Amino acid sequence: MIGLPAVLLVSAALFALGVYGVLSRKNAIGLLVAVELMANAVNINLVAFSNHWGGVAGQVFALFTIALTVAEVAVGLAIIILLYRAHKAVEVDEAAEMSG
């Protein structure tokens, strides 16, 4: 069985990669993937602590956060498609120019 510190280390590494992706990407799809990576790192933490303490509350909460993340991706992809139709690019700078 893998110990809690090892799982938390993997989760921290995934979250750090997600933060790096959010800070360094200009592509909207890359940003969406980086946010997903951060959300999955949080879900790993929830499940790891739930397993460590012997309850199921963390696992249930992880399922709700996965459903919330799916809804966020659907809205994000719709915005990206509209951005591509308007500017033929998916750069975040183009979206900043659309605000008016």
Structure description:
The chain has helices at residues 4-24, 28-53, 57-87, 92-98. The protein has 100 residues and is an all-alpha fold. It has a single domain (4-98), classed as Orthogonal Bundle (Helix Hairpins), CATH 1.10.287.3510. The mean pLDDT is 90.
Strands, helices and their partners?
Elements: H1 4-24, H2 28-53, H3 57-87, H4 92-98
Helix pairs in contact: 1-2, 2-3
Please outline what is shown here.
The protein has helices spanning 4-24, 28-53, 57-87, 92-98.
Descriptive keywords:
single chain, 100 residues, mainly alpha, Helix Hairpins, 4 helices, 0% strand, elongated
CATH class category = Mainly Alpha
Q: Which range best describes the helical content: under 10%, 10-25%, 25-40%, 40-55%, 55-70% or over 70%?
A: over 70%
Mean pLDDT: 90
- Encode the helix/strand succession as letters: HHHH
E-strand count = 0
Shape: elongated
Question: Low-confidence parts, pLDDT < 50 over ≥5 residues?
Answer: none
Total individual domains: 1
Q: How many helices? A: 4
Please give the oligomerization state of what you see: single chain
The CATH topology comes to Helix Hairpins
Rg over CA atoms: 17 Å
CATH architecture: Orthogonal Bundle
- Please describe the biggest sheet, giving its number of strands, its sense, and whether it closes into a barrel: none
Strand content: under 5%
How far the N terminus sits from the C terminus, by CA atoms, comes to 55 Å
Structural class, from secondary structure content? mainly alpha
